[in-house]
Design a protein that fits this description.
It is found in: Cell membrane. There is one protein chain. The protein is globular and about 55 Å long. It has one domain (59-224, 233-295). The protein contains 15 helices and no strands. The longest helix is centred in the first third of the chain and has 33 residues, at 56-88. The model has no long low-confidence stretch (mean pLDDT 83). Helix content is 79%, strand content 0%. It has helices spanning 2-5, 13-25, 32-50, 56-88, 92-103, 107-117, 121-148, 153-163, 167-177, 179-193, 196-206, 218-232, 240-260, 264-268, 272-295.
Length: 296
Amino acid sequence: MILVFCLTPWASPPLALALGLWLAQTLGNPFPAFTKQYTAKLLQFSVIGLGFGMNAHAAVEAGREGILFTVCSIFGTLLLGYVVGRWLKLGRHVTHLISCGTAICGGSAIAAVGPVLRARDEEMSVALATVFVLNAIALFAFPPIGHALSLTQQQFGLWCAIAIHDTSSVVGAAAAYGKEALEVATTVKLARALWIIPVALSTAMVFKQQDVKVKLPWFILGFIGAMLLNTYVPATHIVGPWLVQAARLGLTVTLFFIGAGLSLKAIRSVGPKPFALGVLLWVVVSTASLYVIIHV
């Protein structure tokens, strides 16, 4: 019944996440295998669908404005994560996974970098649980903060793309703020996600790993293709709004699945030190990027 409600117009991404969290803490996730297997795919197809509602010219402009923030924040986060991880005496793999998840795009970055590191399942689980908990907090906290500070749509979209880990929560928070914020946030976040490739390759070199394969985030190419079709092929305007609506429903269901997978057991498995690293990195990135966005 809850899943069906998430498909109705009354369900929003934050509400869907909250319902998923409630389900996880009370009855438990009734379909753990399904959510683990299909959540990422549903998110990826939803992102592609959102491309049918965006204009390529506006996206290029948004991406151009966000590129300097992207480069500085990614390398600054990775460096800070290394320093704080050593101070906390965390393992190198967990430190690097959480740092990559914070710097680039949450679970997608961790999933891409983990095999390159040949990280153990426990290390992957700790890193994923850390960023997913912080994602949930950000999805609820960012829109009220944006309104309290009177951020413009452009400013809020850029802040979301830089300071929130996962694409799902970025899109959910930006959609709650407004249409322009959603366009800016999605474009900048997906441009940021392309850094998975050079970061994963650099990881293989730094950690001296050989014979590893780096997966191309193909859904970003799908998003770009959908956006180009919407911009240059007028015929797509007939089905475009329907595809965008389907994508937003898919995103809402995705966040419900993510919330349903965040049980107390999963949260407790993180441990204090990895969670401390994740929180510290997130707070620094959030506050520093917000200050720059407002004052520069």
